């Protein structure tokens, strides 16, 4: 696991965008990338949009999502909706498969898993998965104390969540840890003061109490900014 420090969110976002550019250019055939939700990825999406369609072989890139809220795609909380506004529409992208948050969650999770197995392969080894981390150490929608954290066989599940970080009691659709571990490259983008206190635990001893500490794979890298890194050893 690698940790790279950057000055601020802008620099973290530029680094994330550059990773996608380099990895997509170096690939052949379809390039399957899973986007993260929340607010951190917005700036990376905007940077990718500003680079234009020639920055990378977008015609070979297929967009997926690592998690989704159980809301319709046009809801302000939709992770797909955020990506549509900041990346898909500006670049007029057409190759994507969204998690259908408006459906019955277990059905939506099962449909997405079937689609992944058909399009990406079995096991579905993503070329790149972007993740974030919440102030409670969750990643994707793997929140501390929720059933999905312990899932060992399925790739996508619905996950009951009751957390102030998730705006109370809800259900999410999420990649599982085996799915994340199967990816060729994983990049976690973490920035801002609300991550400072949890980051030492996320980068420390793996614990289900801090699900992001359980992220593993052949090439996992954390892109963090100086504020989030403040409580890490120098
Ligand atoms: C979600 C995300 C989630 C996110 C973290 C960090 O659906 O909310 O996928 O895992 O990455 O909550 O969110 P911020 O980037 O907004 O801090």
Structural class: alpha/beta
Give the helix proportion (percent range): 25-40%
Please give the count of helices: 6
Determine Rg (CA atoms, Å).
Answer: 16 Å
Tell me how many strands there are. 9
Give the strand content: 15-25%
Q: What's the helix-strand series?
A: EHEHEEHHEEEHEHE
Give the termini separation: 17 Å
- CATH top level is Alpha Beta
| Average pLDDT figure | 98
Strand order of the largest sheet: 1-9-8-5-2-3
Largest sheet: 6 strands, parallel
**Judging by the overall fold, what is the CATH architecture?**
3-Layer(aba) Sandwich
Bound molecules: 6-phosphogluconic acid
Report the CATH topology name: Rossmann fold
What is the domain total for the residues?
1
Poorly predicted segments: none
Overall spatial form: globular
Specify the oligomeric state: single chain
Explained architecture:
By secondary structure, the protein is α/β, with parallel strands linked by helices. It has a single domain, classed as Rossmann fold (3-Layer(aba) Sandwich), CATH 3.40.50. Helices cover 28% and strands 21% of the residues. It is built from six helices and nine strands, in the order βαβαββααβββαβαβ. Strands 1-9-8-5-2-3 form a six-stranded parallel beta sheet, with helices on one face. The longest helix has 17 residues. The two termini are 17 Å apart. The mean pLDDT is 98.
SSE blueprint and pairings:
Blueprint: E1 2-6, H1 9-25, E2 31-35, H2 41-51, E3 61-65, E4 67-69, H3 79-91, H4 105-119, E5 128-131, E6 156-163, E7 168-175, H5 177-181, E8 186-190, H6 199-202, E9 220-225
Bound molecules: 6-phosphogluconic acid.
6-phosphogluconic acid (6PG) binds next to loops.
